[in-house]
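Minutes, project check-in

Agenda point 3 was the complex the collaborators sent over. CS summarized: two entities, 578 residues total, and the question is how they sit relative to each other. Sequences were read into the notes so everyone works from the same version.
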Amino acid sequence: MTRNLRTANSKFIDQTSRISFKFDGKKLYGFKGDTLASALLANNIHLVGRSFKYHRPRGIMACGSEEPNAIVQVGNDASMTEPNTRATEIELYEGLEASSQNCWPSVNFDIGAINNFFSPLIPAAFYYKTFMWPSNFWKLYEYFIRKSAGLGKSPTEPDKDIYDHRYLHCDVLIVGGGISGIIAAKIAAKNNLNTVLIDDKNILGGTTLFQENECFKVNNSYSNEWLKNEIENLKSLENLTIKTRTSLAAYHSYNYLLARENLTDHLDINEKKDKIRQRLWKIRAKKVIIATGAMERPLIFNNNDRPGVILSSSIKKYIDYYGVKCGQKVSLFTNNDSAYETAISLNNSGVNVNSVVDIRDKANSLIVKQAEKLGIKIHWKSSVVNTSGYKKINSIEIMKLSDDGTTVFGKKIKEECDCLGISGGWTPRVHLFTQSGGKLKFRDEDNVFLPDKSGLDQISIGSCNGDFELDQIIKNSVRLTKKIFKN
Amino acid sequence: MFLINCPYCGERDQSEFSAGGEAHIVRPKQPTELSDDQWAEFLFMRKNIKGVQFERWNHAHGCRKWFNMVRDTSNDKIYAVYKMGEKPPTK
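CS then shared the predicted structure for the full assembly.
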C-alpha cells in the first residue's frame, strides 16, 4: 500500500533512509523529511482522531500550523508524553510513537460516536444543564464527565528534558522564511544590519520552494529554482543569522518577542538523550519584518468535515514536497485559481483528477487554460452540496448554482472520489501583527483583513500583507523593506 | 515589555524597573491638620487616566535611583524620561 501512494520524484524526501514509527500501536514506515501527517497519508491513514463532542471521524486537513483536526498524542512515557500536538508539525523520527485522541476503545471503533446519532437530543450546554440535579448525584456523574472532558492525556510525572533560554538583540528580525522573508533578509543583511531570520519549518523557502510551473517565473527561471538560488546566496551573508525550527510565540511592545527553537524534537529517540530539547529566545529587535504568508480557507457545504477533505494547497504540498498522494481519485472544489495549481500538480504526478468544481462562471487565467489543456474536467458555476463516506470520503454530490449564487438547482451529479480538495481563497496570517497591538483594515475586493496601523517599528510584507501574485510579492517586498530602512 | 531609557544608565529592559505610580503628588506640609478624607485623598486617590500620564519609576535592579517618565497608557509609548526634581516637560 505504501509504495503506490508515493511518487518517486520528491526532491525533499530522502527515500533511501527509511524510518519506522508507531501509530496507534501499529508499526509503519516513512522517510527522512516526512512529517507525521505525510507519513500517515503515505500509509493511507486518513482517520487520525475523533471530534470532541460527537466523536465524528477526523482526518488530516492541512499541512502546517493551521491544522485543526489531526491532533495527536505523542509518546507513551508517563513523563514525556505530549497531548494535542499537530501531526502536520511533527517531524518524523526513528522510534516516534503517536496515538489518536478522544476515542475509546480505538479510533476506528469509538463508542462515543453514539453521541453523533443522539445529537438532536444533546444541544449546547446539555451536560452543564442536565447533570446539575439531583445535586448529590454529582459523585456518580463526575467519573464519566471527567473521563469525557479534554482531548489528550497529560503527563503524570515531571518532565525530564532539559530546557534553556537565551537573549537575542538584533537590528532586524524577519519572521517567516518564505519568498518575501528571504527577499527582506537579503536587503537587510546587505545594508550592514545585524539580521535574524526565523522560520518554523526545517528548511527555508515556504510554498514557493515547490512551485514549479511556467506560470510562475522570476527572471526567466522557475520561481522555485530562483528562490533556491537566493537561499544559497543568503548563506554567504555575514551579518545574517538563520534559525529554522523556530516559531514565534509572542510579540510584545517595544519589539520584544519570544520564540521557541526546537533543538532535538526531530532527532531519533536514542539521539535525544542529554541534549537540550527546546530553547526559548527572548528577542529585542529594533525593527521587525513580518512575512508570515497566508493560509487557505476552507469552503462550506454539508459534511465538509469528513476525513479525506483536505485544503487544496495542502494536497499540492503533499504531492510536490513530500511525494505523497492524498488519494487516487481526487476531486477539487474551488472559488479561485489556486486549486488549478493543485490539479496540474496531481495530473503531472499521475493522480486521477476527477474534476474541478468551480463556483465561478468562467475564468481565463493562464493556469486555468493550462488545466483545460491537460484535459481536466471543470464544472463551472457549480457547487459541492454533500459528501458521503463515514470514515473516509467516497463520493461527492455536485449541483448547478443559480445566477445570483444563492441557491442550487438541477440534477445532482454524483462523483466518486477518495479525496476532496477545497480552496476558498486566501487569508493573510495577520495574527502576529494583531497580537502586537496593530489594527486591521478590510479589503472588499477579496474579503481579507490586512495590517493597517501599528505603533511599533514593524512592517508586514508578502502575502500576509495581501499580495497574492508572485510579481506583486517580489515588487512590494523589496519596496516596503527598503522603505523601513530609510526612517 | 518596555524598553526604558534610564536617565542614569541608558536603555534597559522593563524587567529591571519597578513602577511607582503617579508622579508629582505633593505631600501635605502639615498632615496633622488634615481631615481623614483629605489624608485619604493624598494617600490613595490616583487619576489612572487613559492617555498621557506622568509617573515615577525606580531602576530597582540597576542604579536603584528614582526618576520620572511620561507615558501614554493607551499604547505604552514613552514620550520623555527625566530626573527627580527636574521640571516635567510641558509638551
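Noted in discussion: Chain A touches chain B through seven residues (CB under 8 Å).
Follow-up: revisit at the next meeting once the mutant set is ready.
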